[in-house]
Amino acid sequence: MITPHCRATARAIAEEEITLCVGDTSFLDYGGIKKKRQGYGPQGNGGNGLLLHSALAVDPAQGQPLGLLWQKVWNRQHRPQPPKKETPRQKKKRQAKARKASRNRPFEQKESYRWVEAMQAVEKIVSPSTRTIHVFDREGDIAEVFEQLNHLRNTGVVVRASHNRRLEQDPNRLWEKLEAQRVQLEYEIDLPKTKDRSAHTAKLVVRCCLVQLQRPTRLADSHPLQVYAVYATEVDPPEDEDPVSWMLLTSEAVTTVEMAQTILRWYTYRWRVEEYHKILKSGTQAERYRLAAEGMKTLLGFLCVTAVELLRLTYLERTSPQRPAQDVVTPLQLKVLISKTPKVPKPLTVSWAVKAVARLGGYLEHRRNTPIGIQVLWKGWAKLNLLMEGWQLATQETYREKSGSYTQKVGLDQSVSIKVLIQFRAALGCFLALCKVIYQPISTTLL
């Protein structure tokens, strides 16, 4: 469903020398669905739903989200019920057998394969002239990710280490090796708020060096896993908060202080994909719907594209507020926003367009210190689409019926026939009824 959007994103970055691709997995819980549960799967703590892995393209200079490059939706399989009257000894034996079977599964059948799968899929659609750097959190710290670099020409990685790995021909492990290095850089970096820490500027001391990771037995015949390690630790953290400690492994050559700074900055952009999943859940409310699994996966295609465009719009207002408003809205959307604005400024900028959309969603502009939230942007886009439909109907002068179809006599600001609009709305009837908006392909205006 999102393939056209991903291809459009790939075309948009075709002339870029480097593009970041930040990846993360999110759980979509549909535990409230009591019927039609086929196609959903367990998620722990009694949850029931889908897993969503997203690969989001991000500008390496400013961290501006650019669009999705790949996405995967799947569900876990329910485990068979244990035999009745099972003894503790039998249970232990059954669990040991299940663990052994899990370890012996082909890598392509494991959930962790999604990290490598994303690298392979993105390499196929991105222009050979563009180098894609994948940025992963600790879940992506698997040997197969680094081994895959030997097979991909235009792909690199920045991965936060999770394992204190052994090193080839070195008695030290990874952490001990880096702690023994001299401090090469002191660097301040702005950190966003998370559930474990407050938003603040962290002062980091940085060490880095070239390391060769020891290959696991299953990859004994592969090429050496040689990467650069960048180890950053926070000094003087806020009171009652644990200091930041990042061990980053990257395929990029970190031979200068400037490159070490770049790797650290790139890693901070990883939170863009977490923000994207937050928008998907709290903005478009993707977990609210109650559909059969296949229908939900189809709906997710529309919601995921909408969520990424909301994220793009939010960051464009922050990183490029003075760009022309036409970069983020269509001509018809611009006409509607102008008609709803009492005092229209000149020139019309991205900042003005975003605030105009937010006002439609209930944003109070006199609260200038309050950032524009995703909820008001989502409501504003929904209302803007309804206003666009009213505008189109009001400017339509005549319809002529011919052979059971309606043909447009005066343009609707878009060169499509009423028949096509009717067919389009019928095909997306479920989506329109649930979201209460007229689907507008935002991606074509922003990419």
From TrEMBL:
Domain of life: Bacteria
Bias (Basic residues): 90-103
InterPro entries, per the entry: RNaseH-like_sf (IPR012337), Tn5_transposase (IPR054836), Tn5p-like (IPR047768), Transposase_Tn5-like_C (IPR014737)
Sequence segments annotated as region (Disordered): 78-107
SUPFAM superfamilies reported in the protein's UniProt record: Ribonuclease H-like (SSF53098)
Name of the protein in question: Transposase
